[in-house]
Write a structure and sequence with these properties.
Length: 485
Amino acid sequence: MPKTGQLIAIDQGTSSTKGLLLDSNLRVLATVSKPVELDTPESGWVQQDPEAIWESVRLAIDELSAQATEEILGLAITNQRESALAWDVATGKPLSAMLGWQDRRTAGRVHEFSEQQREAIRELSGLPLDPMFSALKFEWILNQIDADRSRSQAGQIALGTLDTWLVYKLTGQLAAEAGNASRTQLLNVATGEWSQQLAELFNVPLAALAPVVGSDAPTAPILAGPLAGKPVLAVLADSHAALYAHQLGSGATAKATFGTGSSIMALSRKPAAADSGLVTTVAWSIDGKLTTALEGNILSSGATVVWLGQLLAKSPAELDQLAQSVGESASEVNLVPAFGGLGAPWWDADASAIIDGMTLSTGQAELALAAFEAINLQIEDVLAAVDNATGQRLPAINVDGGPTSNLWLMQQQANLSQRSVVKNNVAELSATGVAALALKVVGIDLGDYRADNSSFEPNLETSSAVARQASWHAALAKSRMQRSN
C-alpha cells in the first residue's frame, strides 16, 4: 500500500522563501513565507547572502514541521535558477555572495569569446552565451577566490546553483539536479552530463561541480532539525516545477510563468535552432530519462512594474488602477525594459531600456499601461518564437505565478496574444509541482488530480492586436540600436 502522510515543499525564490505543508492529495494545509533581501552594490550587480537564504529555508521548515499532524514523508525543493555561489567543502562556509540570475557583472566577458566558441557553447549546452547563466558567474567567482584554480581542482571548493547549496546544507551531500544543472551552461544537454569542453571554455574545473542526479533521486538523510533522518525526495527548478504541475493537472505541455522575470517553456524532443530565439533545457530527469524543453527567458517583467512604482512613488496596485484608466484612444507608449539587455527571443545584452512614443499628453497612467503591456508583449514574442520553432500555433497558454492574480493583466495577455489564457488558481504552483513529484517518489498515485483553472478568451479585434504588436516591435528596434560607449 502507498504511504500516507504529509510533505513539506520549499520554494526558494528571488524575493522570498515560501513553504507549504501538504497532505498526500496535494491539499495545502499550511503556508509560510520568509522575505530575503537583494543587494545591488554596483550597477548591474545583483547578489544575495547565501547564509541568509539558508536561514530562511531552515526557519520555514521549522515552522511548517510544528504544524504537521501526521508523519512527514520528506522534503521537496524548488528554487530560483542560474544563481551561483562557491563554498568551502570542508567547513560549509560560503566563499562568495550568491550571484543572482539577474546579475550582469560578466556582460563584458561575453565579447571575449570567438564566434566558433559561441557556436560550440550553444550546440553543447543548448543555451546562448549570456551572463544570465551560471558558467560566467562561476568563472568570475573563481577569479576572485581561486585565481590559479588550485583549490577548485583539488575539490576543496564547491560551485553550485541554489539547489546544490540547499541540499548540501541540509544533508552534507553534493548533488546537482539535472534541470538546474542544465541552466549552468556547463551541462551537455543531450547526455545530461557535465561537459569537459564547456568546463575548459569557462575555466571551471569539473572537480568543483557536484555529481548530476535525477530530479526524483532522494538525497542522503537530512542531518539536523525536525526533519532529521528524512530525505529530500525531489528537486525541480522553479519554472520546471510549474510545468510539471501544469502537465499533472491538465496535460499541458507549454506554460508561461509570470514573476520578477518570466519563463515560457514548452516540452519538445527537438532542440532549439540557433536562430529561433529559444534555448534548449532539461525540464527534468525522472526514472533515469531526460525530458527536454524549449524555453524563452524574459529578464524583466514584474520587475518593470516594481521599478516604475519606485520611480513614481506608487504601489503596483496603484499602477494597476492607473493602467486600467487609460482609454482606447490614448497614444501608444512603449516601455522596453532592457535594464540589463534583452533576453528571449532577442538575446541582446547590449540593448538599452527606453520609453518610446511619449508626448506632452503622456502621464503616469500611460506609463503604467506601458509597463504592464511590456509584460504581455514580451511573453507574446516568446510564444510566437515557440510557434515558429514547432511549426504549430499554440491556441492556448497555461499561466502561473504571482502576477497572474491580476485578472485584468490576464485578459490583456489573451487580447494581445490572441490566444486563450488558462490560469492555474493554485497560488504556489512550483511548490505544488515538486511536491507532486516527491509523492510519486514515495509511491503515492495522483492520477485523479485535477487542476483548478480559470480561462480568458480574447475580446480585442485581431487587427488591433497586430497593430499594437507592430508598435512594440518598432520600439524594440530602437532599443536594440542604442549602444553604450
